[in-house]
Amino acid sequence: MFEEFEKLKSRKAKLEFLQQHKNMDLFKAVLQGAFDPNIKWKIPVPDYTPDDAPIGLNPSNLFQEIPKCTIFAEGHHKGAGVSNGRLEQILIQVLESMCKQESLIYEGMLKKKLKVKGLTEKIVLEVFPDLYRNVEPEESKTKAWR
User: How many Cα atoms occupy the beta-carbon half-sphere of 9 within 13 Å?
Assistant: First the structure.
Protein backbone atom coordinates (compact mmCIF):
# COMPACT_ATOMS: atom_id res chain seq x y z
CA MET A 1 0.00 0.00 0.00
CA PHE A 2 2.77 2.46 0.91
CA GLU A 3 4.71 1.54 -2.23
CA GLU A 4 1.64 2.46 -4.27
CA PHE A 5 1.46 5.83 -2.46
CA GLU A 6 5.11 6.57 -3.26
CA LYS A 7 4.48 6.15 -6.98
CA LEU A 8 1.93 8.96 -7.02
CA LYS A 9 3.28 12.19 -8.49
CA SER A 10 0.86 14.95 -7.55
CA ARG A 11 -0.34 16.17 -4.16
CA LYS A 12 -3.92 15.78 -5.41
CA ALA A 13 -3.34 12.10 -6.25
CA LYS A 14 -1.78 11.51 -2.82
CA LEU A 15 -4.74 13.14 -1.08
CA GLU A 16 -7.14 11.02 -3.15
CA PHE A 17 -5.21 7.87 -2.26
CA LEU A 18 -5.40 8.67 1.46
CA GLN A 19 -9.10 9.49 1.08
CA GLN A 20 -9.72 6.10 -0.55
CA HIS A 21 -8.08 4.34 2.41
CA LYS A 22 -9.64 6.56 5.06
CA ASN A 23 -11.81 3.79 6.52
CA MET A 24 -8.99 1.29 7.06
CA ASP A 25 -8.49 1.30 10.84
CA LEU A 26 -5.14 -0.49 10.73
CA PHE A 27 -3.79 1.92 8.11
CA LYS A 28 -4.89 4.82 10.31
CA ALA A 29 -3.23 3.15 13.30
CA VAL A 30 0.14 3.10 11.49
CA LEU A 31 -0.26 6.77 10.63
CA GLN A 32 -1.28 7.64 14.18
CA GLY A 33 1.60 5.66 15.66
CA ALA A 34 4.03 7.48 13.39
CA PHE A 35 2.70 11.02 13.63
CA ASP A 36 0.77 11.45 16.90
CA PRO A 37 3.07 13.32 19.31
CA ASN A 38 1.08 11.96 22.26
CA ILE A 39 2.11 8.38 21.49
CA LYS A 40 5.53 7.54 22.87
CA TRP A 41 7.16 4.18 22.28
CA LYS A 42 8.85 2.48 25.26
CA ILE A 43 11.90 0.96 23.62
CA PRO A 44 14.20 1.76 20.71
CA VAL A 45 14.14 -0.51 17.68
CA PRO A 46 16.70 -3.28 18.26
CA ASP A 47 18.86 -4.92 15.61
CA TYR A 48 16.92 -7.60 13.76
CA THR A 49 16.96 -9.60 10.53
CA PRO A 50 13.73 -9.29 8.52
CA ASP A 51 12.34 -12.42 6.90
CA ASP A 52 13.71 -12.64 3.36
CA ALA A 53 10.74 -14.55 1.95
CA PRO A 54 8.64 -12.74 -0.66
CA ILE A 55 5.63 -10.74 0.52
CA GLY A 56 2.80 -13.11 1.32
CA LEU A 57 5.04 -16.03 2.24
CA ASN A 58 6.14 -14.65 5.61
CA PRO A 59 4.97 -15.99 8.96
CA SER A 60 3.18 -12.69 9.60
CA ASN A 61 2.40 -9.34 8.02
CA LEU A 62 1.97 -5.71 8.96
CA PHE A 63 -1.79 -5.89 9.39
CA GLN A 64 -1.53 -8.91 11.71
CA GLU A 65 1.11 -7.20 13.83
CA ILE A 66 -0.26 -3.66 14.10
CA PRO A 67 -3.03 -4.64 16.57
CA LYS A 68 -0.29 -5.84 18.93
CA CYS A 69 1.77 -2.62 18.79
CA THR A 70 0.07 -1.07 21.82
CA ILE A 71 2.22 -3.29 24.05
CA PHE A 72 5.13 -1.02 23.07
CA ALA A 73 3.27 2.26 23.79
CA GLU A 74 4.07 4.13 27.00
CA GLY A 75 1.14 4.23 29.38
CA HIS A 76 -0.92 1.56 27.62
CA HIS A 77 -2.27 -1.17 29.88
CA LYS A 78 -1.17 -3.97 27.52
CA GLY A 79 2.49 -3.24 28.21
CA ALA A 80 2.13 -2.69 31.94
CA GLY A 81 4.38 -5.01 33.90
CA VAL A 82 6.31 -6.20 30.85
CA SER A 83 10.05 -5.62 31.25
CA ASN A 84 11.98 -3.72 28.60
CA GLY A 85 14.05 -6.85 27.96
CA ARG A 86 10.92 -8.87 27.22
CA LEU A 87 9.50 -6.06 25.08
CA GLU A 88 12.70 -6.07 23.05
CA GLN A 89 12.41 -9.85 22.51
CA ILE A 90 8.79 -9.48 21.41
CA LEU A 91 9.66 -6.61 19.06
CA ILE A 92 12.46 -8.62 17.46
CA GLN A 93 10.04 -11.51 16.90
CA VAL A 94 7.47 -9.16 15.36
CA LEU A 95 9.97 -7.47 13.04
CA GLU A 96 11.59 -10.75 11.97
CA SER A 97 8.22 -12.33 11.15
CA MET A 98 7.40 -9.84 8.37
CA CYS A 99 8.93 -9.13 4.98
CA LYS A 100 11.57 -6.41 4.85
CA GLN A 101 9.25 -3.73 3.43
CA GLU A 102 6.65 -4.25 6.15
CA SER A 103 9.29 -4.44 8.89
CA LEU A 104 10.61 -1.07 7.71
CA ILE A 105 7.12 0.46 7.93
CA TYR A 106 6.66 -0.92 11.48
CA GLU A 107 10.14 0.29 12.41
CA GLY A 108 9.43 3.71 10.91
CA MET A 109 6.24 3.95 12.93
CA LEU A 110 8.13 3.19 16.15
CA LYS A 111 10.87 5.68 15.27
CA LYS A 112 8.27 8.30 14.28
CA LYS A 113 9.98 8.49 10.88
CA LEU A 114 8.02 6.68 8.19
CA LYS A 115 10.26 6.52 5.16
CA VAL A 116 7.46 6.87 2.63
CA LYS A 117 8.15 9.48 -0.03
CA GLY A 118 5.58 12.27 0.08
CA LEU A 119 3.84 11.05 3.23
CA THR A 120 4.05 13.94 5.65
CA GLU A 121 2.17 14.83 8.79
CA LYS A 122 0.65 17.81 6.98
CA ILE A 123 -0.86 15.76 4.15
CA VAL A 124 -2.03 13.04 6.57
CA LEU A 125 -3.83 15.55 8.80
CA GLU A 126 -5.60 17.06 5.79
CA VAL A 127 -7.37 13.76 5.26
CA PHE A 128 -7.44 12.58 8.90
CA PRO A 129 -7.92 15.78 10.96
CA ASP A 130 -9.01 13.81 14.06
CA LEU A 131 -6.29 11.17 13.77
CA TYR A 132 -4.63 12.02 17.06
CA ARG A 133 -7.51 11.00 19.25
CA ASN A 134 -9.56 8.12 17.94
CA VAL A 135 -7.71 5.06 16.67
CA GLU A 136 -6.46 1.97 18.46
CA PRO A 137 -5.51 -1.05 16.39
CA GLU A 138 -7.75 -3.48 18.23
CA GLU A 139 -8.75 -6.44 16.12
CA SER A 140 -11.46 -4.88 13.94
CA LYS A 141 -12.45 -2.36 16.64
CA THR A 142 -11.66 1.31 16.97
CA LYS A 143 -11.10 2.74 20.44
CA ALA A 144 -9.05 5.49 22.00
CA TRP A 145 -5.35 4.68 22.44
CA ARG A 146 -5.30 6.48 25.74
Answer: 0
Residue 140 lies in a domain: no
Other beta carbons less than 10 A from residue 40's beta carbon: 11
Torsion over CA of 3, 33, 102 and 82, rounded to 10 degrees? 180
Residues 6 or more apart in contact with residue 97 via CB below 8 angstroms: 51, 58, 59, 60, 65
Domain that holds residue 94: 2-133
Instruction: Kindly state whether residue 83 falls inside one of the protein's structural domains.
Output: yes
55-96 pLDDT per residue, tens: 889 999 998 999 999 999 999 999 899 999 999 999 999 999
Q: Which residues contact 19 (CB under 8 A, 6 or more apart)?
A: 127
Q: Is residue 145 part of a domain?
A: no
Whether 80 is in a domain gets the answer: yes
Query: Domain total for the chain?
Result: 1
CB atoms near residue 85 (< 10 Å)? 9
Cross-strand bridge partners of residue 141: 138
pTM over 0.90: no
Q: How far apart are CA 87 and CA 36, in angstroms?
A: 21
3 state SS of 99: strand
